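Ligand: iron/sulfur cluster. Inputs:
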Amino acid sequence: MTYLVTDNCIKCKHTDCVAVCPVDCFYEADNFLAINPDECIDCGVCEPECPVGAIVPENALPDEEREKWDEINRRVSEWNINIVDQKDPLPEANDMDGVPNKYEEFGIIPIKDITNE
Ligand code: SF4
Ligand code: F3S
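Predicted complex:
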């Protein structure tokens, strides 16, 4: 079992979650944060910290959604940009809260695509 970050984190990235994780298993993309499913110890303390409800236990998702978000969280974790300190949310966070299907519309952008510009 693991917890997974899901759609509503995209373009919000509040980062309250990273401050409480006892094993520092959050990884950062430009517009999203991910949990490494292999490092998460399933403690659950991050779930209530997310102000936009983006963190869920994997077994709360229907099969197709669980597979999709497991793959996305793994892929972002493999980019290996670990984040352990909270920082300001993205400027558009309030406007983007609750916008449906953000992954399909915006995708997930690696930080290195921004820093290499
Ligand atoms: Fe970290 Fe616990 Fe959240 Fe897993 S469930 S990401 S170990 S705070
Ligand atoms: Fe994302 Fe919520 Fe953490 S918006 S960065 S999962 S606090």
